[in-house]
Structure formats: structure tokens, C-alpha cells
Design goal:
Rossmann fold, about 40% helix, binds ligand SAJ, alpha/beta, five-stranded parallel sheet
């Protein structure tokens, strides 16, 4: 049972707003804080400024019951949850400036005995940096009550939810809580148990920070293995999808799926925080990043070779822009970079982009004379070269007779895996 009944959530983005809403619908008084006035206004109207299943119902319900409100200034509260971006800088170290800005908002409100939780994915040491930063602004407060100074409790509780399933996974996933002190961890555990039905595992702050980075690096390294296999298989003239399908019948082998590269906001970023923290020792993690980052260029080269063989100006169907299947999220999507590179390298080619989840081309592609949005059927039927960049269900449903006589570069193996029958269970698990 938590004794906390007022929480300020700093940052109303993909993680902060769902966390604010789930706390509020479980009886906590929540004030969401965001620098963006439009976001604040939307939340105060009970609206959600981005797409996430079921989030709208939670926000609307919490606002109408008076449990959730939003503001641009940080108020006084018993607990603060910081869920702001931590992008990487040019040298690939983490940019902590958003965390520091949140700290500057929190510091003047503290009286003693408050809990400050960092949820943002962070490099090792970031929670202590947040604590040091706040205590430097407020030397009258302390971590441990030394000299009778009122205590502030600091903890890290990384989010692990999958976009598209956030409202389910917030409740059902196990959660890691790392305290700068044991008391901070215990207070944070009590707060999260208000809505989290998974196990809440307690550790120290730096181990919690690393656990989150390690989870995403684990996935990145394993995707890099699959991507490297796809390049080797191409050179050896064998089918990588068949190869992986067969190898995964071994009881202790579970190879992931190759693709055109790794997109999204997390897996392509977080491993660099480990590399920055321990550069000489992070050889595998760094190499995996490089392998995955090199994959889009390899795909572009494959399409360029196919165009050269054709011997005339090609029409290319680029299937998909999202960073993974059946979502509308284009953030850091390798498909966009590949399509833009094709438009640059093959200026006389006509590129027909099919992306059933958007109704306009993103900025990186809009206004290019040789790129236009098309329906899936139209793009495929007009194309000489079909390049599959995302495994959307709509593409999988294409009659394979529509591909006869065309050059197909299938970076997701959608038609090959259909042709080779049911995937083993290990693969089906990776389809999310
Ligand atoms: N991908 C492949 N092959 C695969 C699996 C994925 O190429 O076999 C690609 C996807 O197409 C995509 C990228 O990897 O471009 C990332 O997709 P994803 O589904 O693996 O992960 P995200 O970025 O949507 O969410 C991840 C999750 N982390 C893990 O699964 C360890 C999620 O639980 C985290 O909360 C999220 O990162 C985050 O916010 O850190």
C-alpha cells in the first residue's frame, strides 16, 4: 500500500501520459506536466494527442473524474515521475538536458520526504545525476538525512512497454525498481503496485538502468545476427528464411528475423548508451549496432543492381514505411531512409510507395518528383521491381501471381515464409 496520493508526471509523451492515466484511473491524483501547451490543452479536454489503443478511454475517464489534469508548470506533489526524452548526442552519449530541465522544475517544490522517480531510458548513473542535480539546487535537502536535512528519495523505474500494447503491458509486465537507497526502492515499489499486476523486482538504481539497456541490446544483437545471416546467405545463394526456419527446429536455437534494418526509438538508440559507458569492453554490442545500421545501404544496393539488370528506367514499388508491421509509427524507420536513398540514387526511376497506415508521405519523401504514394495493388501492378520493407498484413495478403515477371527484393521474407508453410512456434513469438 502506498501512502502517496498526489503524483506529478513530467513529460506527457508515449510513456508519461499512459503512466499518468493508469495512476489516475487507480485512484491517485495526477498532474501531468508538459512544455507543449497544445498537449496540456488536449489532455485537459480528455483527449490524447497521439495514437495508442485504449489510452483515450483512460485519459477521458480520469479527466472527467477530476483525477487527472495537465499543466505547463511543475506543481508540488508527494511523488514525481520523470518521463522525458533521452536522445543521443553527436558523439552517441545520452543527452540529459531534458532530465535536467525536469529537475529544475521539481527542485523548488520539494519540502522533504518526496519520491522522485526517473522512468526515461537512461545511461548508467543518470538517476544519481538527477539526484545530485536537484540536491545542488537545494543544498538544504539530502539523500540520507545527514545533519538533520530533510530527505528526498530517488529511484529509477524503466518502462518496458511495447508501442501498440502500452495499456495492457503497463499492467501485466514485470517491473524493475532501482533505488538510490533501499527506502527509495521500497517507496517506488509501493507506488507502482497501485496498477502493476506483474512482479516488481527491487534492485539498485544503476543495475535498473543497465537492465533496461541490456534488454534492448539483447534484441539488437540477435536481430544483427539474423541480418548478418541474410547477407551471408545472399552471397552463398541460399534462402535465409529457409535457413532460419530449419535452424530454429533445434530446441535451443531461436534466431530472430532479418529485415531492412532496425527502427523505432529504443533498440537503435539504447545500446549506444552502454557503448558510451564502457567503450573498450562493448565490442559485440557496438558491432551489432553497426551491422544493423549497415543493412539499409545493402538493401539499396540490391535494388540498384536489379534496376541495372533491367536495362531501362524502372518503376519501383516500395512496400511499407512504418518501422514495423501493422502500426502507423514512422519514427526512425529504415524504410524511409531506404526509399529516400533510392530516390536519390535512381533519379530517373519512378518510386511508388505503398503504406496503408498513412495518408501522406513523410517530410523526408514529400515533394520529391520521383516518389508518390500509391495503393498496394497499384504499386505492385505497375512496378518492375518490388521491394518489401515492412511485413504489414496487407502486403502478406497479396496474391503471389501479381508478382510474376517482376524482380522481388523481400527484406522481410513475407512471401517466402508463406510459401514455406507454417513457421515454428519460436518464430510466431517474435511476430509482435
Ligand atoms: N525487428 C527485426 N527483426 C526481428 C524483430 C524486430 O528486424 O526479429 C525490427 C523491427 O522491424 C523494428 C525494430 O526491430 O524495426 C524494433 O522493433 P521491436 O518490436 O523489436 O521493438 P520496439 O522498438 O517496438 O520496442 C522495444 C521493446 N523491447 C524489447 O522487446 C526488448 C519494448 O519492450 C520496449 O519497451 C521498447 O523497445 C522501449 O521503449 O525501449
Amino acid at each position: 500500500m502506498t501512502t502517496i496520493d498526489t503524483v506529478a508526471v513530467i513529460g506527457l509523451g508515449y510513456i508519461g501520459l499512459p503512466t499518468a492515466a493508469i495512476l489516475a484511473t487507480n485512484g491517485i491524483n495526477v498532474i501531468g506536466v508538459d512544455v507543449n501547451q497544445k498537449t496540456v490543452d488536449a489532455v485537459n479536454r480528455g483527449e490524447v494527442p497521439f495514437v495508442e489503443p485504449d489510452l483515450g478511454v483512460h485519459v477521458a475517464g480520469a479527466v472527467s473524474q477530476g483525477k487527472l489534469q495537465a499543466a505547463t508548470e511543475t506543481p508540488a506533489a508527494q511523488a514525481y515521475i520523470v518521463a522525458v526524452p533521452t536522445p543521443f548526442l553527436a558523439d552517441r552519449s545520452a543527452d540529459l538536458s531534458y532530465i535536467e530541465a525536469a529537475a529544475r522544475g521539481i527542485a523548488p517544490q520539494l519540502k522533504g520526504d518526496e519520491l522522485v522517480i526517473l522512468e526515461s531510458t537512461s545511461p548508467p548513473g543518470a538517476t544519481r545525476h538527477l539526484a545530485d542535480y536537484i540536491l545542488a539546487l537545494r543544498p538544504d535537502l539530502s539523500l540520507d538525512g545527514e545533519g538533520g536535512a530533510p530527505v528526498i528519495h530517488f529511484a529509477h523505474c524503466p518502462e518496458r512497454v511495447l508501442p501498440g500494447r502500452v495499456m495492457i503491458e503497463l499492467v501485466t509486465n514485470d517491473r524493475i525498481v532501482g533505488g538510490v537507497t533501499a527506502e527509495a526502492a521500497s517507496l517506488a515499489k509501493d507506488l507502482y503496485s497501485v496498477f502493476c499486476q506483474g512482479e516488481i523486482l527491487v534492485t539498485d538504481d544503476v543495475t535498473a538502468e543497465m537492465a533496461k539497456l541490456v534488454e534492448n541490446s539483447y534484441r539488437d544483437v540477435n536481430i544483427a545476427f539474423a541480418n548478418e545471416l541474410s547477407v551471408i546467405s545472399d552471397k552463398l545463394g541460399i534462402d535465409v528464411w529457409e535457413l532460419i526456419r530449419l535452424a530454429n527446429h533445434h530446441p535451443r536455437v531461436n534466431i530472430l528475423q532479418p529485415g531492412p534494418g532496425v527502427g523505432g526509438h529504443c533498440i537503435a538508440v539504447d545500446p549506444w548508451f552502454i557503448v558510451a559507458a564502457s567503450p573498450d569492453e562493448s565490442q559485440l554490442i557496438r558491432t551489432a549496432r553497426e551491422v544493423n545500421d549497415a543493412k539499409p545501404e545493402w538493401v539499396v544496393e540490391k535494388v540498384r543492381e536489379a534496376a541495372e539488370k533491367l536495362g531501362r528506367e524502372p518503376r519501383i514499388a516500395a512496400l511499407g514505411l512504418a518501422f514495423k508491421a501493422n502500426i502507423d509509427d514512422l519514427r526512425e524507420s529504415p524504410a524511409i531512409g531506404i526509399t529516400a536513398a533510392l530516390a536519390d540514387k535512381l533519379p530517373t526511376a519512378e518510386i511508388l510507395v505503398a503504406e496503408p497506415h498513412v495518408d501522406a508521405l513523410p517530410v523526408a519523401l514529400a515533394g520529391r518528383p520521383n516518389v508518390q504514394l500509391a495503393t498496394t495493388d497499384d504499386a505492385i501492378s505497375k512496378a518492375d521491381i518490388v521491394v518489401v520493407l515492412v511485413d504489414h498484413d496487407e502486403f502478406k495478403a497479396t496474391e503471389q501471381s501479381a508478382l510474376v515477371g517482376k524482380s522481388v527484393i523481400d527484406t522481410r521474407g513475407i512471401w517466402r515464409s508463406l510459401a514455406s508453410g507454417d513457421l515454428p512456434a519460436a518464430h510466431a513469438n517474435q511476430a509482435v
